[in-house]
Records
---
Amino acid sequence: MKHLITVAILVVLGTLGVHAGLGTLGLLPEQASLQAIAVDKLLDVHLWLISFLFSLIVMTLAYSLAVFRRRKGETGEGAHMEGNTTLEIFWTMIPLLAVVFLAFIGAASLGEIRRIDPSALQVNVLAGQWYWQYQYPEYGIVSTELYLPVDRQVNLQMTSNDVIHSFWVPEFRVKQDLVPGQTTELRVTPNMVGEFRVLCAELCGTSHAYMESAVFVVTEEDFAAWVESQQSTAEVDPLLLGQQLVQRYGCTACHSIDGSQRTGPTWAGVFESVIPLADGTTIIADREYLIQSIINPNLHIVEGYNPNVMPSFASVLDQTQVEAIASYLETLK
Amino acid sequence: MPASPEKSSALRMGLLIFLGLAVLTALEFAMAILLAFWQLLLLVSLFKAGLVLYYYMHVSRLFEADQDADHESYAYRLATNRIGLWLFLVSDAFIFGGLLISRINLLGLTRPELNQVLGLSVTSVLLISSFFMNRAETAMAHGDRRQFIRGIGVTLFLGMLFLAGVVGVEWQIAAFGPGDGVAGAIFYAMTGFHAFHVLTGVIFLMVVLRNGLRGRYSVEKHWAVEACAVYWHFVDVVWIFFYPALYLIGTVL
Amino acid sequence: MKKFFALGLVRGLSWEIIGTALGIGFVTLVRLLIGLPAWKAEPAVVFGALLGALFFLVGVGAVDDWFKWAVGRETGEHFDDSHPGWRRYFGASLDHKVIGIQYLVLSLILMSVGGLFALIFRTELAEVQMQFLTLNQYNTLMSLHGMVMIVSILLGIAAYMNYLVPLLIGARDMAFPRLNAFSFWIAVPAGLILLSSLFLGGFDTGWTGYPPLSARAPLGMQMFFLGVSLAGFSSIFGGLNILATVIRLRAPGMTPFKMPIFVWAALATSLISLTATQLIGLSFQMVMLQRLFGMGFFDPAKGGNPVLFQHLFWFYSHPAVYVFVLPGLGLISELLPVFVRKPLFGYRWVAMSSLGIALVGFLVWGHHMFTSGMAEYLRVPFMYSTLLVAVPTGVKFFSWVGTVWRGKITFETPMLFLLASIVVFLLGGLTGPPNATVSTDLHLHDTYYIVGHFHDTMFGGYIFPFFAALYFWFPKMTGKRLNERLGQLQFWLITPSFVVLSLWMMRVGLLGMRRRIADYDAALGFEASHLVMTVAGFLIGLSLIVFFINVWYSLKKGPPAIGNLWNSRSPEWQVASPMPVHNYDQPFEVVGEPYDYGLPGSQYIRFKGEK
């Protein structure tokens, strides 16, 4: 009995200690959405359970090791206890009750983060190797950065151009895969103004690590201003636009601009040069060739490189954007 | 040699089960044409599979109690071998189950356009081969070597005919290739995995035929014959499910 | 030289090279004959590798007896004693103890290779930006680390099941010794093919190989799929053999609830590997077919469904983690009573909990797919079933605590590893439920939290029990004891560094570190954490080197193992070490309970002719 009481005290102290310790560590990133609040609340319940069960097992074990160890010169065997059915039923029921409890609040929590607001702002998300693109059907805007008004639910309708990607903003907590050939949905209600990062959480090939984009949560007024500015950026310098697009879509991960060797052919001095092709012929890299290589990369395969490496950007970029990139490429020496 | 009463009744039972299976297959075909009702087809398939498992594959032998405690005796090892073979079949069934689930997931209540006459023909060929396989095994168990050899020979021939029908004809005349849409992929994968099993069964039959001709099996010791029969019937059971899944369920794409 | 080529392994490898060349030539010839461009790497290499594996099996002699049976020739009964001494470990032997040790050695080799891969990319991660690996090299090493370790674990549990199960149940050998040899030897070409992906362009999908990414990855992907499919056969036939052996070859009097508890664990594990493994094989083969023949199972452009692959894949791959840990948990339950000198607390409950975990394990695969885009309503039942796993797992923990309570505990190296197993597996187990409840999993999925969580379960459920068992049974296998001091050194190196490693993984994961990324944003501030993890990783590597030194030193100079070293009640310790070739000279009969430590005069087994 003395043993049991000591262990019980140890377990209580352990539980409080572990939970307090975990709390001071700062386990999670900032809470920037309503969903994050629900997730964190459930996670804290988990942390209490973890602290308790960890202390229960480890404290009992540690106490046994310290107290029931074989002392010097001792020879006897341990107590002959084969088991205790009541005890077994008891400690089958304890986890079972915990499971039922978790199942209940788990379902409630899921309901909370999936709550649908009919007035949500719809954004269509398109991902590909290795870029994010956001379309605002209400405003006719296409952007590579995600702007969201604060305190308004956003309904992300997402699909992928090639392989599976996954939309994740750690500060929003929730995550959803983008699957080619189907549309998935994610709903977030950002509740904090700030700049965060969208990260691709599902391994999607070579440059997966760099598949990020910015997400700006802004006030209602700032959002309206941004919408307006986006709708009127028709006449931008094509060279500047081309350079921006090349950076946004990570083209330079494969194509160098200084002549060095990467996965794809270099862009240095490409314009109007004579390109040897894999089928033995050659072609002159005129503007037509540059544009085709963006829209239909497998049409001409440069000697020494493989087909089917570069995805088509036909459905990603519009006519103006392709032209802008071509203009930019023409300037590279 | 006059047939013993047990042998005659075993052969009669084999024939009866075959007739039952044939009638059910015809019924399936008719049902698919008259009323597209996949639940009914599933029930019939399950019933057919049950008949084969119980009467042709002797699943109940697994649960016969051992009288012999000597682990090294032939009888004890025979029972161990049976368990081993059945465990293998259980494992193998998961491949075919996975293919069926893929088919349901990808095609739902549609099916590829296939030649119905050919489908029914190859199904019949496989069914008849099962009948002869059972006959051969029953004959061996009762010591009738000539009937055993004949039965194995016919089964072997029908097995090759089935392969020729599926790979040689069906694959060639189908309106689509393996790369044509998901229906093509499923059709070639399901028939391909099954045909591979038929092929291994055919090789097994050849081995049994060769050793049978040399008189290596006896009434007491013919595990290879039994194993070959059980395996062959298993391949038949798989087709019992694949045939309606590919040819009968749902509407043509 | 002649003796060298007489070794089965050498013959097998030579045959494999010939087979691969023939396969490549055959495909090229066929393409030439039907008028296609003759050389296409993918079909040629895939067929070559497959044929090479089959040739290996013929060359090594693993299928000799079956060919003899097919042509109606008789073969020797059970044991092939033609190669005495160390040579028998390099050829096809039918002795389950030899095969067990072969498995063990191959498992350790693969564990070292997989660990080396981890250290390489761990070093790359220590600092922000890429230093000495390209992105593709990183992805390949990271993906291979996963699968090489999984194969290593499968071989490791096969090692213990092969070596121990017949001894524990008093059988002369496995039910199907030839199938047993086949199961081992197919793992050798499987491992080679898997590793060859490193030289064939690598692949960048992680060990899960999700299409559509895996449908467009380099040629190495095919080698990965093929290698895993072949290793799967090893697991399937191994499981089949264990099941048949346990069902059929137990000693007289050994009723189900008098079996040693490890046998229950082996039974539960084998049930899973026998059935579920076929589906990972099937899903991988479907991607192979998609790549080779354009069959569009998972290609949305052809009406395929990428999520279907994940269902097929996880239907195996979740139960697979129970394949990895159940034998380890069985080893904990098996060995704990020996060092505590007390019966296993609640034997029947522990036995049933293994089966319970195995069965519930079949119903939970969807929790890997909460974010996958599968039908939304499926998330809830999968959440419930997943949480349910906690119940039988809890029974195990409480039973261990109950066993230790009021024992007479001693702390030899195996016991230290057992205690570490319990604590580390507890960490792994307790960090599981947050992944089971959907909303928290949406944050944790695909982060380092998951990485930390499953490394805890793998180390607690496999690595630590693996070493506990090795220190315990090494004397039985070799007749030499392992050095105790080096053993303690290994323990104190590996345990703290591993705990630090896994806790740090979970911490950065919670803070936003995605898994499977070659590089991370400096702004996240994870650099110091990664440096800590890298150092911890190297300490784990160092502990393995200590272990290998220990094995080498003890084999040469270790004290001979005489008698019942650990004062165990288990039958194999009642006879000489190393185990006699034909196992027990006298068959035994079970007359009591397996773990009646502390009950004077009780007996578990009685040898024939003994009073």
---
Amino acid sequence: MIDRYFSFIIGILVLALLIPTVAEACPSCKTMDDPIVQGFKWSILFLMAMPYIVSGLIGGGVFYVYYRTHRTDNRKPPSNVKGV
Amino acid sequence: MNELEHTSYERTEGASHRPISNARLAVLVLLGAEIMFFAGLIGTFLVFRLGSVTWPPPSQADVRLPIGITGLNTIVLLLSGYTVFQGLRAIRQDRQRELRNWLFATGLLGIIFLVVQGSEWVRLVHHGFTLSSGVYGSVFYVLIGCHALHVLVAVLWLLAVFAKTVAGRFSGNHYVGVEVCAIYWAFVVVLWPLLYVLVYLI
């Protein structure tokens, strides 16, 4: 039973090797002069940078608010802190 | 514990130990997700725009986007960013009547922006430029449409804040509702010039 399945898989693999076709899964695996490659390149770079920019902005914003609150706390009693 | 007591508790007990309030943090995380959403759309636009030798594509060469009127509309939206900031400044100094006026002006400017955008869309659709007009139409309507939807949500949010302001629910010590709405409004205002330059000018 197992030998039959094994033979079937080997047969499929041999068949696949006998009828090769060109398949391009990677849009950037072309010449760099192609405009679509440039489009993908800049899009990938943009999207790659964006999570760092977003987390940096949120982290920076939280740090700024924390810094400002502590500076205010040092100057005023806690009951005067506004906007909580 | 009612809202005022809760606010008072936060102010005296929790605020000095917490770097940022829950509401502010929530709106920042929401904006992070929104930025990534628009980054995805802009990434799509970049692929099609930079991947095309001519833009608009030859099949849509006769389409003329309303650059002038949308430029004026951009100024209207930027002005709304100024008015919402002034409203926030007013409530920080406990000037509730001023907040009401600034919020009214902001909402009005937001509605003007939406009406002008809508009228320009109607004109473009009558001209035959629709969502199914190839890549150009799809990119334009999805990108600009998503922003318009966000402005609509911001206007509705602002109206809710305005109603609470009229009811006297905000003061110089309690204005986080105004602040988170202003942060969201600032996001839609800051995003628009970027989209305008990308879609209309480049």
